[in-house]
UniProtKB/TrEMBL annotation:
CDD domains registered for this protein in UniProt: HTH_XRE
Entry GO MF terms: DNA binding
Database matches in Pfam families: HTH_3 (PF01381)
UniProt entry keywords in alphabetical sequence: DNA-binding, Transcription, Transcription regulation
Keyword Transcription part of the UniProt annotation: yes
Transmembrane domains' residue ranges: none
Domain spans labelled HTH cro/C1-type: 35-71
Record carries keyword Lyase: no
Protein name: Putative transcriptional regulator
Length: 95
């Protein structure tokens, strides 16, 4: 398999993981996350948290008030934010 084929295969695997169709190898993804706890630990308002991590503030409110639950991709993002908020913020700001 050449580099281009490996890259395409990796992209397809990443898409399947993001869609929740397959589990990533060796990576634990929690079923849910406590969005309010993450936000409060970071000492951010809902608006500041949403802006910092490029999320709609209404979505953050819905998650915290349990009107909606984060989908699998959002759970992964929130888990990464929980572990490395500065890295996520820096990455998003670079885009």
């Amino acid at each position: 398999m050449n580099f281009g084929e490996e890259l395409i295969q990796s992209a397809n695997e990443a898409l399947a993981i993001a869609k929740g169709e397959v589990e990533p190898a060796g990576v634990f993804v929690p079923e849910t996350v406590d969005v309010a706890a993450i936000r409060k630990r970071l000492k951010l308002s809902q608006v500041a948290f949403a802006e910092r991590f490029c999320l709609p503030v209404g979505t953050v409110r819905d998650w915290e008030q349990e009107r909606r639950s984060p989908d699998r991709a959002a759970v992964v993002l929130l888990s990464i934010i929980d572990r490395n908020p500065e890295g996520v913020a820096k990455t998003l700001a670079a885009g």
